[in-house]
Amino acid sequence: KNQVEQSPQSLIILEGKNCTLQCNYTVSPFSNLRWYKQDTGRGPVSLTIMTFSENTKSNGRYTATLDADTKQSSLHITASQLSDSASYICVVSFFNAGNNRKLIWGLGTSLAVNP
Amino acid sequence: NAGVTQTPKFQVLKTGQSMTLQCAQDMNHNSMYWYRQDPGMGLRLIYYSASEGTTDKGEVPNGYNVSRLNKREFSLRLESAAPSQTSVYFCASSEAIHNLNNSPLHFGNGTRLTVT
């Protein structure tokens, strides 16, 4: 069964600290993996996309990694800010039996950054 | 640019009432989507429109209908609302449904619907 699991479910850190969020998937055949940030009361916003051949990609203070062999991805946030408080959702794209692209959404990690 | 605009932001319905959620995008995107988001569940696709003039069912289409009015607008209709349809509804758009490598989903800010 195609699944995306994220950990931890929630996380509280102090402003200025680093943190790492995890995403494990059992989706096959894999196409790509994208991280979204969802602020409270808003829609998700794309942070970065990882394709099969990419291991690491940075977007400002956000760094995503992908290990396609172990089917794991992580999102590392450096020097956290209060505005990083949000839910971070991992989404994996794959091709179904009809060769149509489908998305499997994780449940997200809720991050709270405290002053 | 406004991006993806959804109306209304909040709505309370009684069981059996009907309503239409409106969505418009100003990015000239070909594909549009309706999702629902519930606590403890990932975003679930209700319906999508790969291009103007086409609509297809997603994972959870029962109880909903959609209309792709033109390239900009994609509406979601609840004909007879049920408490199980209490949720947050998100509209999204992308350049092309089959080009999701380079084309992320752009979401509106949601409609919070309560059915009593």
Structure description:
The complex is a heterodimer of chains A (115) and B (116). Chain A contains no helices and eleven strands. Chain A has strands spanning 4-7, 10-14, 19-25, 30-38, 45-51, 56-59, 62-67, 72-77, 86-95, 101-105, 109-114. In chain A, the strands form two sheets. In chain A, strands 2, 4, 5, 9, 10 and 11 form a six-stranded mixed beta sheet that branches. A five-stranded antiparallel beta sheet of chain A has the order 1-3-8-7-6, with no helix packed on it. In chain A, strand 7 and strand 8 (72-77) form a beta hairpin. The relative contact order of chain A is 0.33. Chain B has 116 residues and is mainly beta. Chain B is 0% helix and 47% strand. Chain B has strands spanning 4-7, 10-13, 19-25, 31-37, 44-49, 56-57, 64-68, 74-78, 87-94, 106-107, 111-115. In chain B, strands 2, 4, 5, 6, 9, 10 and 11 form a seven-stranded mixed beta sheet that branches. The interface between A and B is medium-sized, with 21 and 20 residues.
Please outline what is shown here:
Chain A has no helices and 11 strands. With 115 residues, chain A is mostly beta strands. Chain B is mainly β.
Which spans of chain B have pLDDT < 50 for at least 5 consecutive residues?
none
Quaternary structure annotation: heterodimer
Order of helices and strands of chain B: EEEEEEEEEEE
Strand content of the residues of chain A, in percent?
Answer: over 45%
From the spread of the alpha carbons, the general shape of chain B counts as: globular
Question: How many helical elements of chain A?
Answer: 0
Distance between the termini of chain A: 41 Å
Number of helices of chain B: 0
How many E strands of chain B? Answer: 11
